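Help needed: design a sequence for this.
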């Protein structure tokens, strides 16, 4: 029995700090691999969450994420900031 290899899927978000994050790129297969490769080249943090990316892939390009995803995406954005060494003003990581 042969198993079909699952194709890669990727969704890129842009967050300006004021408005809800927007879907700026998405794709499967070769397009997903190109998105991931470009993100790595640009030093953009990546997070793997197949369930979240499947939901995000249903959002049209340029659209803001829906309100019901704010909490999940806030965690992704916080992750990206932390691994990039960026923290809000007056943030004290020792207090956590």
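Sure. Designed sequence:
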């Amino acid at each position: 029995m042969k198993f079909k290899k699952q194709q890669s899927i990727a969704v890129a978000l842009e967050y300006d700090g004021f408005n809800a994050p927007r879907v700026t790129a998405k794709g499967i297969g070769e397009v997903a691999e190109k998105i991931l490769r470009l993100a790595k080249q640009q030093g953009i943090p990546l997070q793997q969450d197949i369930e979240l990316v499947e939901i995000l892939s249903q959002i049209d390009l340029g659209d803001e994420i829906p309100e019901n995803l704010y909490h999940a995406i806030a965690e992704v954005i916080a992750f990206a900031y932390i691994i990039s060494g960026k923290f809000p003003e007056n943030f004290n990581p020792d207090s956590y």
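The mean pLDDT is 87.
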